[in-house]
Amino acid sequence: MLPLASAYATLRLVTNPYQADVDGVRFLGTSGQNIGDIFKYSSMDDYLEILEWTLLAGHISPTAPDTLGCYPFYKSDPFILTECPHVYFCGNAPRFQSKVFKGEDGQRVLLVAVPTFSSTQTACLVNLRDLSCQPISFSGFGAEDEDGDMEVGH
Prior knowledge:
Layout: E1 18-22, E2 25-30, H1 33-41, H2 47-57, E3 87-93, E4 97-102, E5 108-115, H3 117-120, E6 122-126, E7 133-137
Parallel strand pairs: 2-3, 3-5
Antiparallel strand pairs: 1-2, 4-5, 6-7
GO molecular function: DNA binding
Family: Belongs to the DNA polymerase delta/II small subunit family.
Pfam families: DNA_pol_E_B
C-alpha cells in the first residue's frame, strides 16, 4: 500500500485500533469505523458523544462483528477497555472536535474527533502536559487554496 514510504526506517505500521504510550500519556485511537458505525445505526449524532459513550461503556467497538466487519473473537474480546486512556481519538470524523471528559474516579480523558485529512487537510496537535488539543490546517496543499500559503491554527 505504501511502496515509497516503506523504504524509510521511520515508518511504523500499526494495528487499528492502536494504543501507545508517549512520555507517560496513554493514547488509544481508531481510524473511526467503530464511531462511524455507531453514528450510522443509532440516534447519536455527535462523534464526541459516541466517543464518550464507548468510553463509559468500556467497549470501543460494540457493533463489531454485527454491523462492523471484523474477525469474530470467541474466547476474549480485544475491544474491551481494560485501562483508561489519557487520550482517546477517532479518525475520519466529519470535523474537528475535542473535549476533556472527567470520570467519576478522577480520570481526565481528552476525547478527539480527528477530521478526514483528505478532505479537510487538518491534523491535530495534543499538548502532553495539559491535554489540550488544537487543529492544524495544511490548507495550502489543497486545490481550493490558490495562494499556496500554509495556514496553521483554527
